[in-house]
Amino acid sequence: MTLRLHTIVASTRPGRVGPTVAHWFHERAKAHGSFDAHLVDLADFALPVYDEPHHPKMQKYEKAHTKAWSDSVKAADAYVFVTPEYNFGPTPALLNALNYVYSEWNYKPAAFVSYGGVSGGIRAVQMTKQILTTLKVMPILEAVVIPFVFPQIKEGVFTPNDIQAGAVKEVLDELHKWAGALKPLHAK
């Protein structure tokens, strides 16, 4: 059984470093070999502030952007959110994207690659985990944390330190265990 992993770039602002970090992680996920790995950028969906007339749980989507986002979320068996921290919390784009759909998220695991200043984005991760559990997503403990990310990016390429490089395998191994265990629940 091949499990599909979506590595999701959670920042949409101009000048962001999320795609650089996400590309690095995505390449490691492909090399790991346990997942059919896909890189997903929230900016590509251009989701406005939630604009559907019906509650997401009903899945009566009227807008093309919602239908496209729903298809993307539903297609995955597991997620890795590549996210910075905005005022100790998740990015507005990520929070909005999480709230756009409901059932599509259910019974799937998620992990984080977080980056930022001194905290490496872990405060945003902790807040996001609370939201994920409401969506019936299982946030796993293992993570890649990147404090002071900017010195690790040279000429558009992210270079991990030894701890970050080692954490990737731990994240993917654990995520694969959870994705396999939860697949029967969301495959119905």
Task: Identify the notable features of this structure and list them briefly.
single chain, 188 residues, alpha/beta, 5-stranded parallel beta sheet, two-stranded antiparallel sheet
Quaternary status of these chains? single chain
Question: Major sheet: order of its strands?
Answer: 2-1-3-4-5
**Helix content range of the residues, please?**
25-40%
Spans of at least 5 consecutive residues with low confidence: none
What composes the largest sheet?
Answer: 5 strands, parallel
Report the principal-axis shape: globular
The H-and-E topology, N to C, reads as EHEHEHEHEEEH
Query: What is the rounded distance between the termini?
Result: 16 Å
Portion of residues in beta strands equals 15-25%
The strand count comes to: 7
**How large, in whole angstroms, is the Cα Rg?**
16 Å
What's the number of helices?
A: 5
Structural class from helices and strands? alpha/beta
Average pLDDT figure: 96
Short structural summary:
This protein has 188 residues and is an alpha/beta fold.
Describe the structure in your own words:
By secondary structure, this protein is of the alpha/beta class. The chain is built from 5 helices and 7 strands. Strand 3, helix 3 and strand 4 form a beta-alpha-beta unit. The mean pLDDT is about 95.
